[in-house]
Design brief:
By secondary structure, the chain is of the alpha/beta class. It contains 17 helices and 23 strands. It starts with 23 loop residues before the first strand and ends in a 21-residue tail after the last strand.
Length: 669
């Protein structure tokens, strides 16, 4: 039953809670909120902070470093001075195609709170170029789409999931058009113009020129802003999921969220929680993902003991725009050169002008992304080159500019005329095929928690994603998840939900640092993020070895220990960037651990120590957190590959004798 009207302020106040300071606590429902487009509903003044250290000069650099941070922190790890509690039917985290589609469907049945960590449109969906695939041509078939998906996924895909997505896809794309998404039409027939991309046997890519994601995001956001049952709050960061026991088992009952602009805490109590937080491309040094893609949803789900699957399969897009370091300046993401450019006749050349793809795969430029990315990587290593070239200049100029206006305009900024010049390209981390393990209706193993989009591992992609299947996956699973969420909610009596929410009210909320963070600590966090990205880029890239994976494992474990010290020590401020960094390290560790468990090369995971596919290894790699942050072998709640009984992972201490890695809480003098 939907939450109706305005709930009176809760009688439970934090002033009455044992062991807490008196403070304001509001409990509201979405009916009492005012939704403001693109802005947070509530603004608040920031807490005063101490800006400088007074007293005599501290001699020790390390002591000075710590003292400065302590002054800047000014109690930032104390329980939140002011907090807010919201009760809602559906909590949705993320505003890409999956989160927005789900919110619109869920809003037909109750109140929806939609939160996002940045501006609503700042997500991977908004930067998608190619399109969304669906069988809409009479010469195409669902069976062909299914087969293309299975082949691209190296037969690690879940057959039932693939069939479901390919069968339900056309209706979901048609619904997107009904919502107002304006896709490119065939000038002669008036039907959707269907493009062809690598791995597809037929043209089936519905697109809006080369800015499809931007158009989809616009249409969905417009619908969300107009819906009376949806409230959106931006610049909200989810610290942790809230868990409460129902009938002896922990259920997800909402989330602990902070407003990154004010540092104020928000306790959201929800009947169901949907994670649609996107991927973790920022774990790599060169990525097409925006700065917000730090794997937050994956990390908080893992800490809540949700199962995670197939994290070793991280897709590197074969063609991002190559720029010299001086040209990149402060760019946090690489510019993507769409798969559709190769589909439209683009040829890959080395710097000697030689076309090389035919020597690696008979499908040449239209081979699946993992094959093309490895081929480019091999060609670059073979000739000692920093990039290769993608040439589409032999196609009619009018067609190039008509189909790829955004790519043409962006390249022109850097002095490249794609109608005449080849485009310098290099592979970049692009898409996380693994994620939070879900069923056919987006449900996780944590009751009350659902996941959809790139953050989820549904089984559709297997060992490698087929081009333009990701947007389709988000649409299909967002639609399917609503009925499953309603069924879950209906299974419990109103009193049961109320008791679970009351239990969650006992969880203390923390604020994060805002203006209190000084330049020294910001510089330190930036340095640590670069360290994570370099570890992953150098050791866990397109081509891997066991030795390099072990190096990455130890380095990430040391970084995790160091970040844990920053989080626990009150001397340090606690900005959102610190929690993002923790999540980024978590994602890196999950990728490494999954890669170490796979004793073969398949799809996106290519290991020189195990170069062949092994039939006995054709199964998902599943990891789940246990008490103490350990994972083991055997059951569905543990790591399903490997023979060791337990392995240290997130939050656990390494064996000092077998893995002597120095960790520290404070910078060395």
């Amino acid at each position: 039953m939907a939450v109706q009207g305005t709930v009176a302020r809760t009688s439970r106040t934090l002033a009455n809670a044992p062991g807490r300071n008196a403070r304001n606590d509001r409990a509201t429902t979405l009916g009492s909120m005012r939704c403001q487009r693109g802005r947070s509903i509530r603004t608040a003044t920031r807490r005063p902070v101490k800006d400088q250290i007074q007293g005599k000069r501290l001699r020790s650099p390390r002591t000075l470093f710590t003292a400065r941070f302590r002054a800047q922190a000014n109690g930032s790890m104390d329980a939140c001075e002011k907090e807010e509690t919201v009760k809602v039917d559906f909590l949705v985290v993320g505003t890409g195609i999956a989160g927005l589609s789900y919110a619109l469907e869920a809003a037909k049945h109750g109140s929806v709170l939609l939160v996002t960590k940045d501006k609503p449109h700042e997500c991977n969906t908004n930067y998608a170029q190619g399109g969304v695939c669906a069988v809409l041509d009479t010469e195409d078939s669902v069976e062909s789409h299914i087969n293309d998906t299975l082949v691209a996924g190296a037969y690690l895909c879940d057959q039932k999931v693939v069939e479901t997505v390919c069968q339900e896809g056309p209706a979901r794309v048609a619904h997107l058009a009904e919502l107002g998404a304006e896709f490119t039409k065939n000038a002669k027939t008036g039907d959707f113009h269907l493009a062809k991309e690598g791995g597809h046997s037929h043209p089936r890519i519905v697109h809006a020129a080369d800015t499809t994601g931007k158009e989809i995001e616009r249409a969905l956001l417009d619908s969300v802003y107009m819906h009376p049952n949806i409230v959106m709050r931006d610049h909200c960061f989810v610290l942790e999921l809230l868990l409460s026991k129902i009938e002896g088992k922990e259920h997800c009952v909402g989330a602990h969220i902070v407003e990154s602009m004010t540092g104020h805490a928000l306790r959201v109590l929800a009947k169901t929680t949907m994670l649609a937080t996107g991927g973790a491309g920022q774990v790599y040094l060169n990525t097409t993902n925006p700065a917000v893609a730090t794997g937050d949803g994956l990390a908080i789900a893992f800490r809540a003991k949700a199962e995670v699957a197939n994290m070793e399969f991280f897709q590197f897009h074969p063609t991002s725009l190559y720029l010299e370091p001086a040209q990149r300046q402060d760019m946090t993401k690489a510019f993507l050169i769409s798969e559709a450019v190769r589909g439209a006749g683009g040829r890959l050349l080395n710097l000697e002008g030689e076309q090389f793809m035919q020597g690696y795969d008979r499908r040449a430029e239209l081979a699946p992304r993992d094959v093309v990315a490895r081929s480019i990587d091999s060609e670059m290593r073979k000739h000692g080159q920093s990039h290769v070239l993608l040439d589409i200049s032999d196609q009619p100029s009018s067609e190039i500019l008509d189909h790829f206006p955004n790519i043409a305009a962006t390249c022109k900024v850097f002095g490249i005329d794609i109608t005449k010049d080849p485009i310098p390209v290099v592979p970049a981390a692009h898409y996380m095929c693994g994620g939070v393990k879900t069923g056919l209706d987006a449900q996780t193993n944590v009751p009350g928690l659902f996941a959809c989009g790139e953050v989820a591992c549904t089984g559709l992609h297997g060992a490698n994603r087929l081009a333009s299947n990701s947007l389709l996956e988000g649409l299909v699973f967002a639609h399917r998840a609503v009925s499953s969420a309603l069924e879950y909610s209906a299974a419990f009596e109103k009193d049961t939900v109320a008791r679970a929410w009351d239990s969650a009210m006992d969880v203390p909320l923390l604020s994060v640092s805002t203006s209190t963070v000084g330049e020294d600590f910001q510089a330190l966090l930036y340095e640590k993020k670069l360290e994570v990205q370099n570890v992953m880029w150098q050791n866990v890239g397109i081509v891997r070895t066991v030795a390099k994976l072990q190096v990455a494992r130890l380095q990430l474990a040391a970084l995790h220990e160091e970040i844990s010290c920053y989080l626990k020590d009150p001397a340090y401020p606690k900005p959102v960037e610190l929690f993002e960094l923790r999540n980024l390290v978590t994602c890196g560790q999950l990728i490494v651990w999954s890669a170490l468990k796979r004793k073969e090369s398949r799809g996106l995971h290519f290991c020189l120590d195990y170069e062949e596919q092994v039939e006995d290894e054709r199964r998902p790699t599943v990891i789940s957190a246990h008490r103490g942050g350990r994972v083991g072998k055997g059951s569905s709640a543990q790591m399903t590959q490997g023979k060791r009984k337990a392995h240290p992972i997130l939050g656990s201490r390494m064996n000092a004798e077998s893995h002597p890695v120095k960790t520290r809480c404070l910078p060395e003098e």
